Amino acid sequence: MEEIVGKIKNLKEKLKLLEERLDIKKKKAEIQALEKEVSRPGFWDNASEARKKTKLLALYQDQVKELEDFSQRVTALEEMAFLAEAEVLSEDLEKELEGLEKLMAKLEISTYLGSPHDQEAAIVSVHAGQGGTEAMDWAEMLKRMYIRFAEKKDWKVDVVDEVAGEEAGIKSVTLTLDGPFAYGYLKGERGVHRLVRQSPFNADKLRQTSFALVEVLPELAELEEVKIPDSDLEWEFYRASSHGGQNVQKVSTAVRLRHLPSGMVVTSQSERYQERNREIALKLLRAKLWQIEEEKRLKEKQALKGEHKVAGWGNQIRSYVLHPYKMVKDLRTGYEVSNPSAVLDGDLEGFIEAELRRLPQD
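Predicted structure:
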């Protein structure tokens, strides 16, 4: 029983530290201010700003509620421990304590999500690298992996743009994943992902190595830090190749947007309406321009992360081995598991948490 009491005390200390790091007192004050603003007449006149503030309000409310619920459970556990006499009750205490310790480990991850834009939706792009058809199939497997991860977290997923492979898989795909701290969780996924397996496209089933490049950007609203004059934009409209049904085949709803100063091009063809594809393309461009400026800033601090790399040998961040043995290993953190099927089915929490703990905080 003494050991249990000691662990409960440790949980209470961690909770206090967590509340300080997340500045819960300040968040409670901001919740009150936001609740008043949301209820005032005319709040929804500026729909974009209103959505941003309601999203922030929901985020703060969830954070406060999580810690308050945790505090109540710890208090109840402490009272049970004080009253506990029978061994049966001690067993129940240990079970509840184990659950709380696991929950605390997850709550502590939130303290690593304090960088600018961590709370934004994520734009995830996957590009097939070296390896031909194999690499295109691998890119599609990664697409599925991120969609499954998002579904498990109950995030909204949209396919913004996709280019199919000639024989199988995809050449590239761009997804938006919208959920609490989506960018913060996924930013460490950017880099080259390497797959080793027996080829399903070769009669001899030879061992094959494939590569795919993953890019992750925050979905940014119109911000002072990323202003794009209309004169810098060149729009082109065309018929989408695969989405939208007959309407798309007859009307040029797909959008290609070129940023004239940089020559950067983005496309969006997932929506049935041109105006919506224009909005998505502009968000993609804004995110890419932000990334360029962010990389400049990080270079100055000699801590550049997520720079563009050739999708090939020597640049991978993670290896997925399906043959001759089974293992997925992150080469930055050393975190590894022996169940690649689970990982490819969206079980990424361990890799993401290990990388969040490794990344320097702003």
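Summary: The two ends are 41 Å apart (CA to CA).
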